[in-house]
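Support request from a user on the community tier.

User writes: "When I paste my C-alpha cells into the form, the page sometimes reloads and wipes my input. The last time it worked, I copied everything first. Here is what I submitted, just in case something in the input itself triggers the reload:"
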C-alpha cells in the first residue's frame, strides 16, 4: 500500500485537530448516553443491560422485592446506585 502525505499549514492543522476532537467528543457522548453511563435513572431494559442480566432476571430481582423500583406515572425507573447496592449485597463472591 502506498503512503500518502498531506501538508497543512498551521491554521489548517489546527482546524483539522478541532474537527477530529469534536467528532470524537460527540461520538463518546452519544455512546455514553446510549449505554446509560451518564444517566442516573434507567428504564427496565436499560437497567437490565447495565446490570448485565436478561430482562427476565432483572424482573425477578424486582418482583421478589429485593431491588427498588421507582414508579412515576406508570414508568418504572431504576437508580444505578440501587442496582449497584443490590448486586453487591446479594449472592456470593467467587
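"...and here is what came back when it finally went through:"
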Amino acid at each position: 500500500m502506498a503512503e500518502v502525505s498531506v501538508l497543512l499549514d498551521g491554521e489548517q492543522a489546527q482546524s483539522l485537530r478541532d474537527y477530529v476532537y469534536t467528532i470524537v467528543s460527540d461520538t463518546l457522548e452519544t455512546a455514553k448516553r446510549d449505554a446509560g453511563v451518564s444517566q442516573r435513572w434507567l428504564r427496565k431494559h436499560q437497567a437490565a443491560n447495565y446490570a448485565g442480566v436478561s430482562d427476565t432476571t432483572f424482573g425477578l430481582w424486582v418482583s421478589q422485592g429485593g431491588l427498588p423500583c421507582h414508579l412515576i406515572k406508570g414508568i418504572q425507573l431504576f437508580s444505578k446506585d440501587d442496582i449497584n447496592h443490590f448486586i453487591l449485597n446479594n449472592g456470593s463472591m467467587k
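Agent notes: The reload is a front-end session timeout and is unrelated to the input. The radius of gyration is 22 Å. The CA atoms of residues 15 and 21 lie 10 Å apart. Escalated to web team.
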